[in-house]
C-alpha cells in the first residue's frame, strides 16, 4: 500500500503571463463518487494532457485528477521554448550516458517538436505553435570553445547546427558576442492554452474525464488492479496509474532524483516590430546561470533565467525584484539599445537531474505505475517523449525505456 504525503507546494508567484492572457478556463469536475477507469493520470498539466492524448488516441479509457484547479500548476509558469538541445552539452552527455544514448536523447528531443506540431494539426487546435530559429550564444571566449566542440559532435551525428563566428553573429543578428550555434528547427508555444485545448478536445471526443481539486492520498495494489483513494474518501479503480504531477512526484521516491531550482521570468510591454532582432529567434547562452529569450504572439519580449537552488517559496519570492533587475541588465548586454519595459513578472520552481535527462517509465518500488518526470529546461519536449513512451509501454510497443530509466 502506498500512502501519499504530498503537500501542494507553491509552484509559482507573481503574475504568470499565460494565465493573465488566457484567463481561467471553466473549472472541471470534482470527484464525489467512486469510479472505474483503465488508466488514472495524476496531474493535469501539459505532461498529463499529452499522456491522455496518446492513450485516448490509442483507444484507452483515461481519467485525470489534480489536487489543484486543472492546468494551474507549473504549466502556467512555463516559458515554452521548444529546442532539441538539452541543458547538458551533447559532448558532456556522452561522458555521462555513452555516445549512442546521448545522441538518441538529442534526436528524440528534435523529433518531439515535430510530433507536437502533428498533434496540434491532427486535433485542429491552436496553442500558438510557431517555428523559430535558435541561437545558443557564447557568453565569453571559453563558452565559444565549448560551442566549437559541441558543433563538431552535433555535425558528426547530423543534428541541425551551424556555427557562427563573432563577425557572422554581428552581421546577421546585430549581437556582439564571440559566436553562437544556430539552428532553424526550434519552436515556441503557449503551454497553458495548448494544455487546455488538448484536454477540451479529448473531453469532447474521447470521453476523457478531468477532476480538479481531487487529491490522491493512498494507493492500494490489488490483484489485477489498483485502487486509488482520494482525500474526500472516494476511490478510483484502474489497471495502471501515470504519475505526472511534476517534481512533486519525488515525494513518492526514496532516492533523490533531482534538484529543485527557482527560475525568474519577465515579460515586456508590447514592442514595435522594428524593435525585435532578426527572425525573432529563441536565444540562450553558455553562461551559468543563463538567461533565455523569446517573443510572444502579441509582440512582447519574454526573458527568463538566473536560476538558483530552491530553498523555500518565501526566499524565492523575496529575490524577485533583484532577479528582475539582473535579467534586464543581462538582456541589455545582448541588445544595449533596447527600450524594454517590464509588464509582467513571476518566478517558479522546477526540477533538474544530474544528466539533464527525464525519468520515464516504471520504478521497481511502484508496481503498476508509470512515471512521467520531464525535469529541466526541456520540460515540454520531454513531456511529449514521456507521453508517447508510456502509451507504448502500456500497449506493448517497443520503446527506448532504458534511456530514461531510474536505474540508468
UniProtKB/TrEMBL annotation:
Protein name (database record): Glycine/D-amino acid oxidase
Organism per entry: Flavobacterium degerlachei
PANTHER family tied to this protein: PUTATIBE OXIDOREDUCTASE, SARCOSINE DEHYDROGENASE-RELATED
UniProt GO cellular component terms: cytoplasm
Every FAD dependent oxidoreductase domain range: 39-393
UniProt-listed InterPro entries: FAD-dep_OxRdtase, FAD/NAD-bd_sf
Superkingdom of origin organism: Bacteria
